[in-house]
Structure formats: C-alpha cells, structure tokens
Amino acid sequence: MSGRWVLVLVAAALAPRPAVAQVGTTTDIINGTVLQPGGQPLAGAVVEATSVETRITRQHVTDSRGRFRITFPDGGGRYELTARYIGMAPAHISVARRQEDDRVEATIQMELATATLTPVTVTARTGAPSDRVGAGASERSFDPEKLSRLPIDLSDLNAIAGLQPGVIGIAGTDSSATAFSVAGQRPAANAVMLDGVALGTASIPQDALRSVRVVTNAYDVARGQFWGGIVTSTTRGGTNIPQGSFTYIGQDRALSWGEATASPFGQGATQNQVSGGIGGPLVPNRLFVFAALQTRWRSQALPSLTSADALTLARLGVSPDSVAHFLSLASGSGVPMTVSGIPDDRASAATLALLRLDWQVNNVHTLTLRADGSMETQEPVRIGSLALPATGGTRRTRGGGVMVALTSAPGPFVNELRAYAARQRRDATAYLALPAALVEVSSDLPDGIHGLTTLSFGGNNGLPQWNDDRTLEIADELSWLPGTTAHRFKLGLDVIGTRMHDNETPDQLGTFFFPSLAALAAGSPSAYTRTVAPLGQTGIVWNDALYAGDTWRPVPGGVLQLTYGVRLEHVGFGGMPIYNRAVDSLFGVRTDRLPTETHVSPRIGFTWTLDGGGGHAATFLRGGAGDFHGLTPIGLYAAALGAPGLASAEQQVVCVGAAAPRPNWSLYLQDATTIPSACADTSDAVTSTSRPDVTAFEGRYRAPGARRASLALVRRLGADYWVTIEGGYARGVNQYGLRDRNLSTTPQFTLADEAGRPVYVPLGSIVPATGAVASTASRRDPAFGHVLVLESGLQSVTKQLGVTLTGATRGGRATFRAGYTFTRARDQSSFSCCAASRGFASPTTAGDPNVLDWGTSTLERRHAFVGTVSVAMTRAFELDAIARLTSGVPFTPIAGSDINGDGARNDRAFVFDPATAADTAVAAAMRMLLARAPSSIAGCLRSQLGRIAARNSCTGPWQPSLDLQLNWRPQWPSADRRLTLSLVTINLLGGLDEWLHGVSGLHGWGYAVAPDPVLLAVTGFDPASARFHYTVNGHFGSVASASGGVSVPLQIGLRGRYTLGPGRVRARPATAPSRPRTARAVPSLPTNPVTAILQLRDSLHCTPEQVAALTAIADSVDAQDRATADSMLVMVRAGAQADSATLAGALEPLVAAARERARAALARAREVLTPDQWAKIAGPDE
Length: 1182
Prior knowledge:
Layout: H1 2-14, H2 23-26, E1 27-35, E2 46-51, E3 57-61, E4 67-73, E5 78-85, E6 88-96, E7 104-109, E8 111-112, E9 120-122, E10 138-142, H3 144-147, H4 157-161, E11 167-170, E12 179-182, E13 191-194, E14 197-198, E15 209-217, E16 230-235, E17 243-257, E18 269-283, E19 287-301, H5 310-316, H6 320-332, E20 345-360, E21 365-381, E22 393-408, E23 413-430, E24 436-444, E25 450-458, E26 465-480, E27 487-503, E28 511-514, H7 517-522, E29 527-532, E30 538-552, E31 560-574, H8 581-587, E32 597-609, E33 619-629, H9 634-642, E34 651-656, H10 665-670, E35 687-692, E36 694-697, E37 705-717, E38 721-740, E39 749-751, E40 757-759, E41 787-808, E42 814-827, H11 836-841, E43 855-856, E44 863-872, E45 877-886, E46 890-891, E47 894-895, E48 910-911, H12 920-932, H13 935-942, E49 947-948, E50 954-955, E51 959-968, E52 979-986, H14 988-997, E53 1014-1022, E54 1027-1032, E55 1050-1060, H15 1089-1095, H16 1097-1100, H17 1104-1134, H18 1140-1168, H19 1171-1178
Parallel strand pairs: 1-7, 6-9, 13-16, 24-28, 36-41, 47-53
Antiparallel strand pairs: 1-4, 2-3, 2-5, 5-6, 6-8, 10-15, 11-12, 13-14, 15-16, 17-18, 17-55, 18-19, 19-20, 20-21, 21-22, 22-23, 23-26, 24-25, 26-27, 27-30, 28-29, 29-34, 30-31, 31-32, 32-33, 33-37, 34-35, 37-38, 38-41, 39-40, 41-42, 42-43, 42-44, 44-45, 45-51, 46-50, 48-49, 51-52, 52-55, 53-54
Helix pairs in contact: 12-13, 15-17, 17-18
C-alpha cells in the first residue's frame, strides 16, 4: 500500500494545480501561430475557437512568439478559429484534427483592415478513413448517428466491437453478457472504457453515446490493463444549442416467419425499447447538462421439456416416449414440475440512465460530473431445453457510478484528472432450494440414429450466485508541449481498487446423477456431488500503473510520427485469506498469499506517410511492438478467498455407487438443511467422503499479458477507395490455468483398447454397473478434495493477416466496408473466467490433466469476413446491411463422464475404428456416424481413428449471417429529415435456412451455433478386462440441437428516431453527380449559403413558413448547381487535351454564375428573415 501512495504523491507533485488523465482519449489540443501581414509573429492577438459540433467557444491571447494553445474536452475535432487585433481585419479559418494526430496545428495570417478576406479551411491531408488513430494503432471510430442506421444494438458496446475486422463476437445467454475476442485471446483480455475510465456493464443509453472506438492494436502507453482489445467510448454532453434524440425499437413475435413458430423453440421475441437523451446550456458557454434514459422490455416463449413438440425432441436427440416416461417418474417423485408464479415467457426488463454536467470554470479549467446507473431483472433464467420449468430461477442486477473529471491547461501543460466510484450487484436465486437431478437417457430415434441426452428436474446446480463489487479508479495524466510542439511528453498515473464480495461456487445444493430411467424409477443414483460453500469472503485488489511517453514528429509536416514510452504496473491485494498450515506442508501452497507483482511494459509505434505530407497523401505504413499487461479476473480472486481448505470453508462432497444417498425430495422441500452434506454410511460403498477444497495462487503467479506486434500498409486506390493490409503477431504470456496438486498422477492401470489411456484410480473404485468413477482414490491426500492452484505458465500464439477495403461509389450512392481476416491461434487453455473447477476442466485431457497440451484455440475463427454497406436508394430511402461469414467453431470430441478419475468431466473421447473395435455395438454405431455425419465432422473422426481425439481437432460448419435495415427519412418541411423510420430484419439467413432445408435439416445459418461435442457416453465398466462400455452419440457434431434446439425465426422489427437541435451539416444529396474526378484541377462551386442558414433554424427560432420558404430557395440553388456540375464535367472530359489556362477560362463563366446565384439566394433569404434573425448570422450592419 505504501508504494501505491508514493506513486500518487509523485504524480501530484509533478502536476500543476489542478490536475488530468488520458488527454488523448477525450481532449483536443489546438496549437497555433498568428502572423502579421509581413509574416512576423503577432503578440496580443485574441484567438477564439468555436467547436463546430457543440458551438462552445474558448479564447486565448497570443504570447510574444504569436503562439496560442486552446484545449477542448470533448470538442469533436472540428473548429472555427477567429483572430482579432486592433487595426487588422478579423481572420477566420476552419481547422480539423488530422486523423492520426493527437493535436491540431493552425497558422492564422492577419491582414490590414482594408483587406476583405474569404474564409479559409485548413484541413488535414487526406488520410485513412479513421478517427484519431494514433501512431501505429489499429482502430476504428464509429459514429452513433451512422450506427443507428444499422441493424445492431447501439447500447451494447460489445456488439459494436464485432463490426471491426479481426474481432469475433461472443453471443450472450440468459445468464451471461455478450463478449468479444481479439486475435484469438480470451474475452477477459479486453477492456471497455467510457469517458476514459473502466465501464463494468458495457451498456449505456444509446442516445447518450457520442462516439465509439474499437482498438485492436495500440502502442500508446496511456492505454493499459488489457492484452486483447479495447472499446473506448464517450458520452454526449450539453452544448450551447439545445439538442438530443429519442429512439424507439420494437419487434413482435407475431411478425415472424418459419415452420417452427408454433413451438416455443421456434418463436421469435417481443421487445419494446424506448430511449431518449437531451441536453443544453444552463449558462451559455459556462454550464451545460445532458441526461439520457433507456428502458427495454423483452419477452420470449419459454422453451423447456414440457413445451417441446415431437419434432423438437427429435432435434434434441430424445424420443417422445422417453420424455413421457421421464415426466411420469419425475412427477411421481414429489418434486414440483413447475412453481406458482413462473411466467410462460422468459422475460427481462432493463433500465439505463445517465446524467452529465460540464462546467467551464474559465479558459484554463473545465469540470465534468457524470452519474450512471443500471437495473435489470430476468425471469426465469437457466432453464435448459431438456429441463423442467421448476429448475430455473431469477436474476437481478443493479449498478451505478459517479465520475468527476477536471481538465486544466495552464501554460504549456495540459492536465486531466478523473475519478470514478462504482458499485455492481448481481443476485441469482433458484425457484426450488433442492438438489439438481440429472438423468442420462438413451433413445432410438426415427431416423435410425441413437441419441444420448441428459434430462433434468429438481433444483439448479448453477444457483444460487451473487456478486457485490465496488470499484474506485483514479487516473491522472500530465502532458507538456514544449517549443514548436514536435514533442508531446506525458506522465500518467492510474490506480484501480476493486473490493469484491462474491460467491459463484457451482453445485451448492448438490446434484444427483442417474445413469438411466430405470435407475430413476428405482431411486438409485450412480453418484451424488455437492460443494458446501460458506458465505463469500471479502478482499480488495489494487492494479496501479505509472507511465511516461512521448509523441514525436521528427520530420516537419507530420510525415513520420512516433509514439513510445514505458508503463510500470503493480498488482497488490488487501484482505488475504486464512493461512492453512496443513495445505502448506502437504502441497507447498500458501493459502494466505495472493499475488503481488511489478511489471515493466515498453512500447513503440509509428505512422509513416510514404508519399509525403501533402494534401493528397495516399500511402501510409504503420505498426509497432510492445508488451501488454492485463488484469486477473476478479472471480478468480474470489474463488481463492472462498476455498482455503478449512472445514469452515468450501468443501467437496463426492459419493459414488452405494455411497450416494437416496434422495428424499419431500424432506428436502420441507427443510433445505436436510439436503445431504455427506455420503451414505454403507460398508460396501465404493467411496464415501466429504473433503475441503483448496483454491490458491502459485507463489510465482503473474497477471496475464501478451507481447504483440503489427504492421499495416494503407493505400488509397483512385479517389474513392482505401485498402488496408495488416499483419499481426501476439504471444500470450503468463496465461492463467489451474492444476490439481492433490491428484496422484501415477496411473493405477491403463485402458488397453483406448491407446493406453492412464487411469488414476484402482479398478475397485469404478462401479461396474454404471462406470461411475470415485475420484477419492486419485487423491494424494484423501483428507482434501481438489487442491487447485492458479498458475501463470501457460502461453498462446496468434498470427493474423487481414485485408480491409473501404470506399464509396461515384456519386456517393453507396458506401461500404468489407474485411477478411485469417487467424491462426493456438493456446494451452481458452478458459476466461470464473469458477475454478470449470477452469480446471476447460482444456480437456487425454491423460494427465496437469499437463496442458497445445491446440487450436477455442476462440479461433480461421477465416472471418465482415462487411457493412449503405445504399442511398433515393433522397429519402436508404438500405443498410451487416453481413458476416466465419469458419466453424473448433471443438473437442469428448466422453460424457469422468474416465481417468481426476474428478472432472473433461476427458477426450477415444475414436473407435469400426474395423477393430471390440464392442460390436460401438463399431456399428461408429460406422453409421461416419456415413451420415457432415463431411467435415466425418473427416475429423476418420483422421483420428484408433486414437484419443486431439484438443479442438474438429470444426463446426461455416456460419453466415445477414441482417438488413431499410431507413426512411421523410422530407416533410416540419421534419427536415430529423425523423428516421426503419424496418429491420432479424436473422434473415436463419429464416432462409429454415425455408430451404426445413426445421429438421437446419444448417446453422444466421446465429452462431456450437456443434454437439459428446461422442461417447459411459454405460458400464468391465474390471476383468479393464475396459469401459460406451454408447456412441449419433448426434455428435450436429448443430440441430445447438442453442438448446431453439431456432431463431426471421423477424421484422420497427425502429424510429427523432433528433432535436440543429441538423448535421450534410454533404450534397447522394443522388447528385459526384465532382469530376480527373487529373485536372476543377474549380469548386460555392457552398449553398441558404443550406447553412437552415442548419441554424432552431437557434434563429424560424417559423414553419420561414423554413418552407428557405427550403424552396435552397432546393432551387441545389438544382441549378447540379446542372452546372454536369456541364463542367462534360467540358472537362471533352477538353482533356486542352491546356489548363484554356480549360479554366472556359469554366470560369459557369463558376461566376454559381457565385452570383449564391449571392442572389442570400439576398432572397435575407428578405425571408427578420432583421434580428439576420443580425445573428451576419452581424449588425455598419
């Protein structure tokens, strides 16, 4: 703790009062020089800068060198500058932040008062189509206004990330949020930021979004605590002009199409979402406010075993007769089939809120206060497709936070301080406080396939769960721009403290396993397990960073830019768990020590303009390399706090064979304390044990990270297209995984017919009738259960090559972005978070589970295409689409039970060769599977006949998706294209899949699906021959049962959006012809001045009659300008061989006529406006 506060004091001493953090994220810096008519610097000139987006104005007086510096927190990147000096005419220029820069440079030339100047626009040289990329970085900026015209959930930042090539989206469930993977790295490798600080929920009101940026490679040392990707976004603030937007999103299951819509397994969802945000000035140019609120209600028919029809059951691999028998037995046991109050639909309600205040204290300091909150309820959750409704529960999430930011710009320094305090609570509770009951069922299906499924009733072994996490983040960054600003040095500090109070332990109420319906009828389980867990423990983890860096332009004009620096990162912990002397002496594990470390991360990145820094630069080379240090998931700390191996902490109960207690459901219903916490007391039991579990960190544990490098060539093709070719390499280091220190890895015997697979329990510890394995016999010390140690010696390697093409058709009717990414990712475990037992089982094993084999990453998608397109069909109608195509999901053929005796169901299946298998039933079933499985699945199995399957050796089918959104912006005078009405398709390809192939032959188009990985199920064990008996799953590799057999039908949704305040300054209508794109210089036509006046109609308080009159004038000018542009294009092409002077002389009369039209239109507009309105835009007459 003392080291942490030393860092804080160092930063405080270096920072001016007051202080900043991560300037490059949200703050624009405008540097410039004002020159006298003779070219000498002009001191004492007053320079005013006005943000084009917010209309907020700031000013600065030039120093003795004629220099000025103005900072804009959240300024938007485009500004109008005006310089005034007594005796000289005001000079006006427009500037825009160059796309790869962290600042804006401007030079203002003053002239004597007698000179009349035309406003000048100073723009960046044309660059790659991105926003503030930063030297070497790979990122893409998304405009929420444009995103609202795409078929995507704008409030889900994780979903937006999936639009970037190289990013793979991971769909959410009713118990997990959406996520994403970058470069094959785990989802825990990513960071989601809002206004420069971490955001826990990854959701905000969509009308509060100002910008979203997805970063896949970043070499700025200010960006840290990730080793995958970053989604960084900013919220809208109030401006000098009241403005906002309101959005409605709706869909109804009645507007769905498909053969399966009569069943809850094929019905669509009904959703209504209302959101809005509005802001404006409380005190103009001083105090601003913005508030946003979003509420969403969603319901979907509840799929469960009781609502499945015969066709659905066949897809799930179970016969209706077996289900009917199961329902009869479950009902007879006395366990409730359903619970009063369970809704017929799976429903959720979510509310998001945000309030922001911005106070410009003076020209040096700006203070921002932001409050955000969220609340969500879901009911029911965790009801499987092959489970009874009573097995579910409810989930509630509540959270919120307050952020304070102070931006200061004294002299040559820019400083920003941010502090954010947040709390997040999640509670998930089961309907029934009962053990879960899992019944394995084998069915002969009508198509001749033998299906294997697991039906469930009773309670839920994933509930209860709860989290109560509190976070405090303090970030500060000091920037110094000396001299002519070739350098921008920065020093920063980031401190994040998280207090956790969690309990995500699975199986807290126990699970009974029945090997068959006959065993269920007899009330004879093959096994019983339970994890007895106390109340969650509390701890605090600190992640601190101190960094120093520089952005340097060694060549004038910005031809070459470098960013480099180093981060010093430290991890500490408060509230250590209890010391267990026995665990220390037996296994060499200290339970009272959680990892602390200090890590140094150097980075360097560059952007090089290969064809110079002129106004038509077309080729860029960018890249970089660096070390990235991430965060250990909070859930893993919580797991260690809850399992120190003491009798008062987490304990594992494992009962196999006769030791498994016979369930007494009626007694459990009356008193949950009677649920067994020990095995039955029988002398002939294979095993009877109740043992404390241990989860601890290895002493040398280090937080995960990666060493990454990238190189990209960006090239403009012609005038309308950009192509980017980028290669990337990432070596994951210190990747976390779990090993069981209490597992005796000396084989007790081997399975001769499974390539010598080792088994770590003696023959007598396996129940012959069921094949159930008592893992107690594999313990080094039977007094303890699993002793899971979190280690960080794992690695991963990812190689990527991507090509992206961006452009627009001539005339601007269509714009598009298409990207292809080839990824080769290998790792030793793809486990991300959070239960330790699941992390141990995640990698799968062919023998010793403590030896983690290399294999294809579960998160690899070898080939991935993603594209967006926008087509202006008419001036009012626009069609937008998102298309994706990814290669299949890697998966491992597994056996459905514990084979090697390590206590985890993570054993890879042995792929029996039909020609040599000793079991004729297995041989016949394998022969049928190889003949009927899809070619890729059959090929995977054939390549491994006679061997234990390799990790992630099979791949599912390619997964395409396509969704459309038709947008209509009516041109009513009162609406002025502020209103957008949209029709949205949901799972368009899924609907086509069902239409073309039928419900029983779905190919998995549309939504992502995971193939069935279970190849074998254990049915018994022969101790004489030391051989397991198996049944082959005829549905192995099938996607028909993916997503629990739920098929999402084609749906049509409706969206509406209305914006308030000044309209955006838009380009010429897409239907107008494009500017001549020839090698010759073509004079530009003057801008329509009446269009600019219409953008100010709200601030001018124009009446509807005035708006109609001004619109008529503007449309008339536009029509004549289009005709002039056509004539100019014809003349340029016809005079291709003429000299420039001759051609310019021919074009000049057309340009002069256009100028006269603009002046005449302005005069007509003046007649429409009142004198007061005219004075606001033209100033008082002299």
